[in-house]
Design brief:
It is a single chain. This protein is mainly α and 461 residues long. Helix content is 42%, strand content 7%. The protein has 14 helices and 10 strands. The longest helix is centred in the first third of the chain and has 27 residues, at 118-144. The termini are far apart. Residues 52-124 are annotated as: Disordered.
């Protein structure tokens, strides 16, 4: 084939440039493959259409310059290292092993850190927070250490003391249950009956309205005696709400000074800060009065009145419960003395803590009625537990009766903790040990009818 005429080719190229301005890149001498970013001048010829349609020249792309200020050490190392290591040192994305960015220390060797810049403020804030954290950590360690570099008593014992309190409470419950079952199960002997110093109504009517059925029952009588013992221990030893009660472990010091001062400060508490201050004072006072030396208590006052009070209290309990005992309570005198002594020791350990440990009871509508209220599964345990099928003692218990359960007798109170172990947040309460209750109604045992002598039925002859 013959080559086309150059005039025809030039006219065709001029018409293409007029219709499509991007055709200016087509030229004979410069090849667009040699330098694609160089603009090619348009033809000298022009027309009115070229003025009406301005030419849009494409400018070459120039990436922005990125200035990386290398460290002085890396600049010296770049002279001796290879190109790969040089690119890795001058890379702005310095990452640690775990992928988190490394914050270099502030020093004059970093020329990109200028005073007043945002990066300078960030690095300054980072080091300020680090110094503040280290100072707080040192202060915490200083306060938690004892005189010889050992941890202080107040920083490590509170958690274990709570577990010890719960264990001793459960042990005290078990001792009371065993003592009542040993001496009050069965039929009381008429030859050992003593005159009643107090009527059964005076002693047991606040505990349940069905006390006569419990006293006549041979196996349920110990449950009523357990409830009576716990009510006496809670009223005279653990509680400080009544006059002349509580602070038994302090002896005469508790009667004369400690109890009135405690009542005055306790009634003056109005907010969270005052509650923290009061319980801190209470725990510190008790620890100073009865310090613990080599694992043993060493009271700073005369403890002889405490032992005398425990003996008198045990004798008073035996005289009140003697008419309903099936054995001589003189045999169980030592065990009862151990129970009361353990209750006094438990109260002392509870008062030593910064948290407020206390026993909780419920009332059924009147101040001295400790029965007749609803059963709460989150705060109470029924001593006659039911299995999954709803069987109790061989009889089926319906779901409706379980919902409508009512407490007939409270055997032991619940243990509650107010505040945490460090003496803060006293607006929160936690039930540590649930109360032992009984929801079954005890029925009176019916005696069989006796025939009168001398009366015989006649038959028809």
């Amino acid at each position: 084939m013959t080559e086309p005429d150059p005039a025809v080719r030039d006219s065709t190229l001029g018409a293409l440039k007029i219709a499509c301005p991007s055709a200016e890149m087509l030229s004979q001498n410069p090849s667009p493959l040699d330098n694609p970013f160089v603009a090619v001048e348009a033809d000298v010829e022009w027309s009115d259409e070229e003025v009406l349609l301005p030419k849009r020249r494409k400018t070459p792309y120039k990436p922005p310059e990125i200035r990386v200020a290398p460290r002085v050490a890396s600049m010296h190392a770049a002279e001796t290292s290879s190109d790969d290591s040089d690119d890795r040192d001058l890379s702005p994305n310095h990452l640690s092993v775990n992928g988190s960015p490394l914050i270099p220390p502030k020093s004059p060797s970093r020329p990109d850190v200028r005073p007043g810049s945002s990066q300078d403020d960030l690095v300054k804030r980072f080091y300020d927070v680090t110094r503040e954290r280290d100072a707080l950590r040192k202060e915490l360690q200083r306060q938690s250490m004892g005189p010889h570099g050992l941890p202080a008593h107040a920083s490590v014992v509170y958690k274990s003391d709570e577990k010890a309190l719960i264990g001793e409470l459960l042990g005290l419950r078990e001792e009371i249950r065993l003592w009542t079952e040993d001496y009050f199960t069965g039929t009381p002997s008429t030859s050992r009956r003593r005159p009643h110093l107090h009527t059964s109504k005076e002693l047991f009517s606040p505990l349940t309205d069905n006390y006569t059925a419990y006293l006549r029952h041979t196996t349920d009588r110990p449950l009523l005696i357990q409830s009576f013992l716990w009510s006496q221990l809670q009223h005279r030893i653990f509680s400080t709400l009544h006059k002349g009660c509580g602070y038994v472990w302090a002896g005469k010091l508790g009667d004369r000074k400690l109890r009135p001062l405690n009542d005055t400060l306790r009634k003056a508490v109005r907010n969270e800060d005052q509650a923290e201050a009061y319980h801190r004072w209470r725990a510190l006072t008790v620890n100073l009065l009865v310090p613990q030396v080599d694992g043993k208590w060493s009271p700073t006052f005369d403890a002889a009145p405490v032992l005398k009070w425990i003996k008198r209290f045990c004798a008073r309990l035996r005289r009140r419960l003697r008419p309903w005992a099936c054995r001589s309570l003189r045999e169980g005198k030592e065990m009862l003395y151990t129970i009361v002594s353990a209750a006094v020791a438990l109260d002392l350990k509870m008062k030593r803590q910064r948290a407020d440990y206390r026993f909780i009871t419920w009332t059924g509508g009147r101040p001295n009625q400790f029965w007749g209220y609803g059963f709460y599964d989150s705060e109470m345990d029924d001593v006659e537990s039911e299995d999954e099928g709803g069987y109790r003692g061989g009889s089926v218990v319906s779901s409706a009766s379980r919902v409508r359960r009512r407490v007939e007798l409270s055997l032991a109170p619940a243990l509650e903790r107010c505040g945490n172990a460090n003496g803060h947040v006293f607006d929160q309460n936690f039930i540590l040990v649930k109360a032992d209750v009984m929801c079954r109604r005890v029925e009176r045992a019916r005696e069989p009818a006796r025939r009168k002598p001398g009366i015989f039925s006649r038959g028809r002859g």
